[in-house]
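Title: Prediction job returns without error message
Component: structure pipeline
Severity: low
Priority: P3
Assignee: unassigned

Description:
Job completed but the reporter wants confirmation the result is attached to the right record. Sequence as submitted:
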Amino acid sequence: MNINLSYNHNNDSPTVFRYIDWITIVIYLLLVIAGAISIYAASYDFDNASIFSFNEFSGKQITWIGLSLLLGMILLLIDPRIYETYAFPLYVGMLGLLLITIFIAPDIKGSN
C-alpha cells in the first residue's frame, strides 16, 4: 500500500488535520468525558449540584480538560521542523531538571 503525502497543487493546501487519527481522538474524548462524569458523581454535593462549578472537583477537571485540548491544538499547528531542531536540547534540559529535583526538593511527609 503506497500512500502519497506530498503536496498536490490541484487541491487546497494540505492541513495537519487531514492526517490525524480521528478514531483515536474520539475514543480519547469519550474516556475524558467519562472520567469527568465519574469525578462529578464521586464528589456530588446535594446542596450545590453543578458540574461546571469551579468549587467542585469536576469543574476543576473540566478546566484542565479544556486547557489540555487547547494546548494540543497549538502543538499540532507548530511546524514539525521546530520539534526536530529543539528536541535534543529540550531533552537534555528536562533530564537536568529531573536530576536537580533529587537534590533540592524538600522531603514531604516522609518522602525520601
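Comment from assignee: result matches the submitted record. Helices lie at 22-42, 57-77, 80-104.
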